[in-house]
Amino acid sequence: MAIKKQFIKTKPVCKVTFSVEAKEANAAAVVGDFNNWNPEEGVLSKLKNGTFKAAFDLPKDNSFEFRYLVDGAYWNEEQADSYRWNEFANAENSVLEV
């Protein structure tokens, strides 16, 4: 799993690329505060090597909770900036600082 951040100098956004290795999975998405936890808005495309990947423009100077949704199971990002307990999910969410 990995996160790549690319700050855009001309816009108040950060292009964030999410990737998760799940060779046996059929579908993956990233869900979080930035897309109202909607899997349809965070679909990751499967590459030939079995990695799911997509890039999203997120507003700078923000903190977002998120998780991966892989074949119906939630996964945290190993390289997250931090983790935050979420009472609703009764689990820790990954945190992204941009």
Summed up, what is this model?
The protein is mainly beta and 98 residues long.
Topology:
Layout (H helix, E strand, L loop, with lengths): L1 E6 L5 E9 L6 E5 L10 E4 L4 E9 L3 E8 L2 E3 L6 E5 L4 E7 L1
Structural features, described:
- This protein has 98 residues and is mainly β.
- Helices cover 0% and strands 57% of the residues.
- It has strands at 2-7, 13-21, 28-32, 43-46, 51-59, 63-70, 73-75, 82-86, 91-97.
- A hairpin with a 2-residue loop joins strand 6 (63-70) and strand 7 (73-75).
- It is globular.
What percent of residues adopt helix (DSSP H or I)? under 10%
H/E series, N to C?
EEEEEEEEE
Overall geometry comes to globular
Number of DSSP E strands:
9
Low-confidence stretches: none
* Count of DSSP-assigned helices: 0
**Biggest β-sheet description:** 9 strands, antiparallel
Average pLDDT works out at: 95
Strand content: over 45%
Protein structure class: mainly beta
Measured between the Cα atoms of the first and last residue, the distance is: 18 Å
Rg of Cα set: 13 Å
Q: What is the subunit arrangement here?
A: single chain
Key descriptive features of the protein:
nine-stranded antiparallel β-sheet; mainly beta; 98 residues; single chain
